[in-house]
Amino acid sequence: MKPRIASLLLFSLFALSCSLFQPTPTPAPEVSSTPDPLDTPWDDRSIFKDGLVSSAQWALDELGGATVYHVELEIADNLSHVNGSEKIRYTNTESQSLNEVRFRLFPNILGGKMEVSNLLVDNTTATPRYDLQNSLMIVPIAAPLAPGESVVIRMDFSVEVPRTVELNYGVLAYDQDVLALAHAYPMVSVFDEEGWNAEIPPQEGDVTYADASFFIVRVTAPKGVTVVASGRRVGFTEAEQTQSVVVASGPARDFYLAASPKYVETTINADGVLIRSYTTANFSEGSQYLVETAARAIKIFSARYAPYPYTELDFVSTPTLALGIEYPGMIAITSWIYDMENVAPNEYLEATVAHEVGHQWFYNLVGDDQLDDPWLDESLTQFITLQYFIDTYGLAGSEGFKSSLEFRWDMIARENIPIGLPVEDYDGATYSGIVYGRGPLFFVALRDAMGDSSFDAFLKEYTQSLTWKVSTPETLQSLAEKNCACELDAIFNEWVYP
Ligand SMILES: [Zn+2]
User: Fold this and answer.
1) Which fold has domain 374-495?
2) Helix 473-484 with 439-450: angle, nearest 10 deg
3) Which of 41, 212, 292, 451 has the maximal Cβ count within 10 Å?
4) Residue-level pLDDT at 135
């Protein structure tokens, strides 16, 4: 995510066929034997293969324990109500038995409403408990799930989408003819050292913490709206009033979609990755600028850290109050910064796009607890955004973006607040100043302390060894120390830890 910092940013940042003959009766059509993608066997990963570049397809065999979601979403004509059903296979990848599986119902704390019904655990009716303002659904498993065992959980659900962007930057909203549907399916929580890890997210920052999973989703929506969703399209059918799109996405930490009757597409193919941008027609110049920027960023980050995993990356313009918000293989960008007549692209658009593309590495490829360790995704992504500017324009050409980092920290008088605090320990100003300003400057200091070549090797090893896993601050420090063959407690204590 890239929250706005006030608006004063200095980083000036058809066929009619007729016949004379009586037509012969048309034979009855053969019954189609095309299987429904949502009936794909749980362990069959073939549907995901074409959505991954060849160098990322190894993950299909490696992530046997990842949760598999089969989801149906029916979007009502008013684009603000969704009826859904979800069937998941959850595998216990922990070292202890589990007697429940926990789901997040995020719409209940994002200004909307999510209700779950007809809950079945391995075909037996189950009664859930709720907590965290109904944003947490605890599903009991009658026979505790031993390590390595799996369970199939089914449910129906409904989502009322808020018609304002007031809460959490408007990640979940129907506003200005755009439906932004974030976290709008029951999402499995992460089980980690803390146990089932769930909390109410603050208004600042990202709301999710999720493991890499696989998604097959059928979206039924009114005709006439463009539906843009995470993953690769594997099916499309039309009825009189509706269209159905089936997508397969994974590995991925979330599923997102946006839909609007106003979207116009701009496409570029960059080194095997199809980059598409959807916005209103009047912003097509900004859209073109955006896809070219994204292509540069993908190239730089793929070479430096690990290949971009997917064959597609989609951008959608939305009314979000953040500058941009990252999702796996998809990025939401706030509409007004596409306006190249009134907003210079080097003020917001380029940096926002590079930053959000960077999150495809640090948030999606390498996961982290975004609520407890926001620096692992946000500060590091800010740093690699600086790297984008260095690699694109040279050191001198990167000074503008570097100054924007200093400026954010200056705004809070360069307070010596650790960068490694949970989101809830910052207020709006210190979250921006520390996590988005001081945080990336820590990585500059770390690079200077380690030396360029060992720092570069560290960040590459960090990305590749943690791909589709969850990182921690300790893992990051120990990999840095390994690569410089040095001890880095002093610098981590000075900048990171409380
Ligand atoms: Zn961000």
Assistant:
1) Neutral Protease; domain 2 (1.10.390)
2) 20
3) 212
4) 97
**SS3 assignment, position 293:** helix
Does the reported pTM lie above 0.90?
yes
**Ligand 1 center from residue 392 Cα (angstroms):** 20
CATH topology of domain 36-261: Immunoglobulin-like (2.60.40)
Identify residue 267 by its one-letter amino acid code. Answer: T
User: Whose structure tokens read 């940042």?
Assistant: 13
Neighbours of ion ligand 1 (CB under 5 A): 1-2, 378
Give per-10-residue mean pLDDT for the chain (498 aa): 61 38 52 83 98 97 97 97 98 97 97 97 98 98 96 98 89 96 98 94 90 98 97 97 98 98 97 96 96 98 98 97 96 96 93 98 98 97 98 98 98 98 96 98 98 98 98 98 98 97
Q: How far is the CA of 384 from the centre of ligand 1 (A)?
A: 11
What are the residues facing 140 on neighbouring strands?
A: 100
Distance 244 CA to ligand 1 centre (A): 32
CA 169 to ligand 1 centroid distance, Å? 13
CA–centroid distance, 434 to ligand 1, in Å, is: 13
Measured in whole angstroms, the distance separating CA 408 from the mean position of its chain's CA atoms is 25
What CATH number was assigned to the domain covering residues 263-360?
A: 1.10.390.10
Question: CA–CA distance from 154 to each of 84, 89, 94, 139 (Å)?
Answer: 11, 9, 22, 11
Distance 468 CA to ligand 1 centre (A): 18
The Cα-based distances of 23 to 15, 17, 26, 27, 28 in angstroms read 17, 11, 8, 11, 14
**Ligand 1 centroid to residue 267 C-alpha, Å:** 24
Ligand 1 center to residue 202 CA distance, Å? 15
Give 359 Cα–ligand 1 centroid separation in angstroms: 7
Q: Which of 401, 423, 394 is nearest to 350 (CA)?
A: 401
Cα distances from 353 to residues 6, 74, 178, 249, 374, in angstroms, run: 19, 30, 20, 22, 19
Using CA atoms, how far apart are residues 69 and 248, in angstroms rounded to an integer?
A: 10
